[in-house]
Specification:
Helices cover 9% and strands 30% of the residues. By secondary structure, it is mainly beta. The chain has a five-stranded mixed β-sheet, with no helix packed on it. The chain has a four-stranded antiparallel β-sheet with strand order 2-38-37-36. Strands 3-4-5-6 form a four-stranded antiparallel β-sheet, with no helix packed on it.
């Protein structure tokens, strides 16, 4: 499972074009208050919302039912008079109905509003004299925030994409400073910024500098990538390039969300891009890998990389290693067969594929009788990490399928709920470690495997550290895969008596049945996909955790394509208190917690953490805030209220020597910096 089902559809929808309700966001970023109201919508916007938005999207970015008319060249190039005819008469044979009931004035207003949307997307509309002097119009919170802060923002040099060219060596940067070049900032997965302009002494002066409004389906879970002052961020199947200093839109690649998807894929979630040279790579909700020109956003190639089962989807960010772009899939709860696949960055040709569910006759195949191997789960729905010196990729795998019925899949169910060490040149398995053999409880192991070089128990070691969804933190030797240490962090954990000397859990045999059994951690996990962080100066490993339990029920069910494959489900455990979240700081020297902070609220946010050389740890809390604490003590130093809960992991970057923090929440990208 990717995120709690109760969170997936919790989105603000009354602010969309065409609605009559007023939306007021109070953005209390340490002194900056902004109120954005949806009452001043002109007649064109109202008519567009009533007749056009349902197919073409509220911002003209398109959908499965209609074209992206805000960015489509053949629409932009038409004159206003031609477009008015289209509004009145439709496009016969193309599925575009006419709206003859609209009078000339209303049709003209719709076209006028469409021109505003096209300008918002950066389109050049040059053949309409009536718009020649019209200002570029920003929508939603972005416009209000930029207007409100215009007097306080210093002059910035504009940043463009013409010179964007990321070399392979930059992806293996030893310190993350101005450039956050990949989903986790670098290959190590540490999410640690060496920038130190913002400190415990001055963080209270942090202010919102800009916000950019997006509009698409799905919860916003992306982490932005920033290279040379250009920010690249995704929302559903759309990609945006922004000036990282101002939030100005540089280009927007629009792609309609896919129909016919189920479960997590139907949430249309996308967590970000990968960049190499002058190309940007992203996965789509229906498991396509697309390559875009980083300077224009134009598509270069499109490869469908999962076939044979329409339950496949994708929700991750790709990972670039050398000349290959690595991808995985979602759908482990829906009876697909997981894999990691590598594609040539230039041609899009598949180079290798490692299947996480063994085929008949391969090691571990005894768990998958008959054709169950084709439906065994083990998906790879988060990006891995990479050690260039060892030339090894570390990639986590998801739970087995069916989720809760283990009777049909005997044995350990390799290679589900595991960490894989793969050769990036061939895709061959070097070693694996399975955290939760024969898993009944949806305990994925896709949590970021963080690479740490430090002394461990008096000996220099190359470690991989991960907090697992099953409630235990693990330390492994990343050269050999040897189990070194584990620590329980989920206080309510009851599924295992402990971990033995080889790292294997000692089960309490809580087997789901039709009546149900209460198991802790819950179906949402003691932690999940949201990112951890490691500070090499303090030796502290930071991560978010959740205390909750679920009632697990199971009944053998057949796999049916187009349906989920849980067999059967979970609900809140009777008599259990509301779920709560913690931010944890685990000391790799003492092998104990330096601090653990209980967050206010009921643990609904799915926001990861990052840390900085300035002595800060940043994350989204459970009361709609972006929070920054003292990384040594956990003391709260600053917070800024957001319009919605964060369901993404923060990042930091620099432009012209200034340090910024960026997060996504609701429909917005927010950037903060000192005055």
């Amino acid at each position: 499972m990717i995120e709690s089902r109760k969170e997936r559809d919790k989105r603000v929808v009354c602010g969309r074009i065409g609605s009559r309700c007023a939306v007021c966001f109070l953005i209390a970023f340490a002194g900056v208050s902004v109120c954005a109201q949806g009452t001043a919508i002109d007649s064109g916007a109202r008519q567009y919302g009533a007749y056009c938005a349902g197919c073409h999207g509220a911002d003209g970015s398109g959908s499965a039912k209609g074209a992206a008319i805000a960015t489509l060249a053949r629409v932009i190039e038409q004159t206003d008079a031609q477009l008015i005819v289209v509004v009145h008469d439709g496009v016969p044979g193309k599925g575009m109905p006419g709206f003859a009931q609209l009078g000339d004035e209303d049709a003209r207003a719709v076209v006028r509003y469409l021109r505003v949307l096209q300008r918002n997307e950066g389109a050049q509309v040059g053949d309409n004299a009536e718009h020649a002097g019209e200002q570029h119009s920003m929508t939603g919170l972005q416009a209000h925030v930029q207007t409100a802060n215009a007097a306080t923002l210093p002059e910035q040099n504009g940043h463009g994409v013409a010179d964007l060219d990321v070399q392979p060596g930059e992806l293996n940067q030893k310190e993350v400073r101005e450039n956050w070049v990949s989903y986790n900032g670098d290959y190590s997965g540490r999410r640690f910024s060496a920038m130190n302009e913002v400190t415990p002494a001055n963080v209270k002066r942090l202010r919102l500098k800009w916000a950019f409004h997006t509009s698409n389906a799905g919860v916003f879970e992306a982490t932005p990538v920033v290279v040379d002052g250009v920010m690249l961020v995704t929302r559903s199947n759309d990609a945006y390039a922004l000036d990282a200093a101002t939030g100005k839109l540089l280009w927007h690649h629009a792609r309609a969300v896919s129909d016919g998807l189920i479960d997590d894929a139907a949430g249309h979630i996308n967590r970000g891009v990968a960049v190499l040279g002058t190309r940007v790579y992203m996965e789509t909700d229906n498991a396509h890998l697309i390559c875009l020109d980083a300077r224009t956003g134009k598509e270069i190639w499109d490869v469908a990389y999962a076939s044979g089962n329409r339950n496949y989807g994708a929700t991750s960010a790709p990972l670039i290693v050398k000349d290959k772009v690595l991808v995985g899939t979602s759908g482990g709860d829906d009876g697909v067969r997981g894999f990691v696949a590598a594609y040539d960055t230039q041609t899009g040709k598949e180079v290798w594929r490692f299947w996480t569910i063994p085929a008949p006759g391969e090691k571990g195949s005894e768990s998958w009788p008959g054709d169950l191997y084709l439906h065994g789960g083990g998906t790879t729905w988060m990006p891995g990490t990479y050690d260039a010196e060892l030339n090894t990729i570390y990639w986590g795998t998801g739970n087995p399928a069916p989720d809760f019925d283990g009777s049909v899949r005997p044995g350990d169910d390799l290679y589900t709920s595991s960490l894989l060490a793969l050769d990036p040149d061939t895709g061959k398995l070097k070693w694996y470690f399975q955290f939760s053999p024969h898993n009944f409880y949806d305990y994925d192991a896709v949590q970021t495997p963080v690479l740490v070089d430090t002394a461990f128990q008096g000996k220099p070691r190359r470690l991989v550290v991960t907090a697992n969804r099953n409630g235990f933190l693990y330390i492994l030797d990343r050269v050999t895969g040897e189990y070194l240490y584990s620590k329980q962090f989920a206080m309510s954990q009851n599924w295992a008596k402990g971990i033995d000397a080889q790292g294997r859990p000692i089960s309490n045999n809580l087997v789901p049945d039709e009546k149900g059994v209460t198991v802790c951690p819950s179906y949402d996990g003691a932690t999940n996909w949201y990112s951890p962080s490691y500070d090499p100066a303090t030796y502290l490993f930071y991560f978010r955790s959740l205390e909750a339990c679920s009632l697990y029920q199971a009944k053998t069910e057949a796999f049916v394509e187009g349906e989920t494959y849980y067999s059967t489900g979970t609900e809140r455990a009777p008599g259990n208190p509301p779920s709560v979240s913690y931010i944890n700081a685990f000391d790799l020297n003492t092998l104990d917690f330096a601090w653990r902070d209980l967050l206010p609220g009921e643990g609904h946010a799915t926001a990861g953490v990052m840390s900085t050389a300035g002595g800060l740890v940043a994350f989204g809390n459970d009361v709609h805030e972006f929070e920054i604490d003292d990384s040594a003590t956990g003391k709260k130093l600053w917070s800024g209220a957001l319009a919605d809960e964060m369901h993404s992991s923060p990042m930091s970057y620099g432009v012209a020597g200034r340090q910024y923090f960026a997060v996504t929440a609701g429909d917005e990208v927010y950037a903060f910096a000192l005055p």
